[in-house]
Please model this.
Amino acid sequence: MATANSVRLVTHNKMGKFDLSHRVVLTPMTKQRSDGNIPQPHAILYYSQQASKGGLLIAEATGGVPDTAQGYRCTPAFGTKEQVEEWKLIVNAVHEQGDILFCQIWHVGRVSNQIKSNHETH
Model:
């Protein structure tokens, strides 16, 4: 039973400049399903299926610039033109559903040195 102080998940929420129709957010889940750190077409389907009008999605951990910040294989990045073009397709699909997509940018710290050495030896 809802009380006067409870927050309902399906109520409007103002988050900065964004008007959300509900408070349910897809949180980041790194799936390690990118090829060459490029998001694949299945990501367009995945994110657009999770979208809901006026909702918020937070994309999986995404490597930025420089590419040495990439610490795990098969995770998406956005440091090259090809990576950016693939992310645009994902963002457009989410926006078509009326949703907002934030990109979780990560730098994996010391792990990035390990992956770089693995790339050099293989």
Summary: The chain has a mean pLDDT of 85.
